[in-house]
Design a protein that fits this description.
Layout lengths: L1 H22 L5 E5 L6 H17 L3 E5 L6 H8 L7 E6 L1 H8 L7 H4 E16 L8 H10 L5 E4 L2 H14 L4 E4 L3 H10 L4 E5 L2 H8 L4 E5 L20 H6 L7 E9 L4 H15 L2 H9 L2 E3 L4 H21 L6
Parallel strand pairs: 1-2, 1-3, 5-6
Antiparallel strand pairs: 3-9, 4-7, 4-8, 4-9, 4-10
Helix pairs in contact: 4-13, 7-13
Length: 327
């Protein structure tokens, strides 16, 4: 009799859990990200949150949990109740974090459920307008003819690893100068105090180029960006080794996505993925993402999870080659 009662109770609990998942969402959702307010990541997250709210007529509250290279935000979601009401706007920092931070203690594939890669972006190699080169191949040829003469304005660790991959593959020599963010690095390149840097594809890079303040050498990818189709890609280089290297998306690419705590009901994950697909088909959303230099993706949880695993593994190898140790 006790066994029967236990089975009945379990069945009732499963029914209630299933009903709750089917009714989801019935209260406000918290969307947490590890980036500060006002930047491209924050704008993209808030735009997604607005569209998600419109789908369900339920509030989506965006919270900026900044610190430890997004680890604080990742921990907050990993430790949250797996009920679908605390979600992570996840970025590529989860790929580089384990290789660069001793304090990184979250396995995002095991402690989170990747829902969908929402958008992807790519950087362009920008150069000072005073540079004696105009294309990627001319840039490489110049560095080989003038080893150590050019200064690279570094903005982030991920950019640094990408440039180290290019340096090692193409046997280049240049000086690296660290800058605290995109704005000072860009100012240095415009003024000719630095010679080249990574800058995101988008309307701002296009404006700087059209006004003659920077040169756009090439999209750091194996193919051109549909957002700026007139800029050649690294994949069009005359150098076969650079064309091959450009196939690695982590060389100059980045992405934002959606994740939930591990243990979240499968039908909630399915609902969130379906929502992501619907939002990606929204023309207004796609236009706003394009303005930020981003393309909509909305792939499956399985594909997104594998992307994270693959990029995390490759980044760890390349960071080690670049001599970067966890701090």
């Amino acid at each position: 009799m006790r066994i029967t009662h236990t089975l009945i109770a379990a069945a009732l609990l499963a029914a209630v859990t299933g009903a709750n998942a089917q009714d989801y969402p019935t209260k406000p959702i918290r969307l947490i990200l590890g980036n500060p307010a006002g930047g491209a990541t924050d704008i993209a997250a808030r735009t997604f949150g607005d569209k998600l709210r419109a789908l369900h007529n339920q509030a989506v509250v965006v919270e900026n949990r900044v610190g430890a290279a997004t680890l604080i935000a990742v921990q907050a979601v990993a430790q949250a109740a797996p009920d679908g009401y605390t979600l992570l706007y996840i970025t590529g920092g989860t790929v580089s974090g384990p290789a660069l931070q001793k304090s990184w203690n979250v396995d995002v594939v095991k402690e989170l459920v990747p829902v969908s890669q929402l958008v992807k972006g790519v950087n362009i190699m920008g150069a000072t307008p005073k540079a004696p080169f105009n294309t990627v191949d001319e840039w490489i040829d110049y560095m080989r003819a003038n080893p150590g003469k050019l200064n690279y304005a570094n903005i982030s660790i991920t950019d640094l690893v990408g440039m180290e991959m290019i340096r090692n593959t193409m046997n280049l020599k240049y000086e690296t100068v660290r800058y605290n963010g995109q704005t000072p690095a860009q100012a240095a390149v415009i003024a000719g105090q630095a010679d080249f840097y990574y800058t995101p594809v988008g309307s701002f890079a296009k404006s700087l180029s059209e006004s003659g303040r920077i040169k756009l050498l090439g999209v750091i990818s194996n193919e051109r960006s549909p957002i700026m189709p007139n800029v050649p890609a690294f994949g069009e280089s005359k150098y076969p080794e650079l064309r091959e290297l450009s196939k690695y998306s982590g060389l100059g690419g980045y992405w934002f996505g959606l994740a939930a705590p591990a243990g979240t009901a499968k039908n909630i994950i399915t609902q969130l993925h379906q929502d992501s697909v619907k939002i990606s088909a929204d023309k207004d959303y796609a236009t706003k993402m394009n303005e930020l230099g981003l393309q909509v993706v909305a792939n499956t949880p399985e594909v997104f999870s594998q992307l994270i695993v693959n990029e995390r593994s490759r980044f760890a190898v390349e960071a080690k080659k670049a001599g970067l140790e966890p701090q």
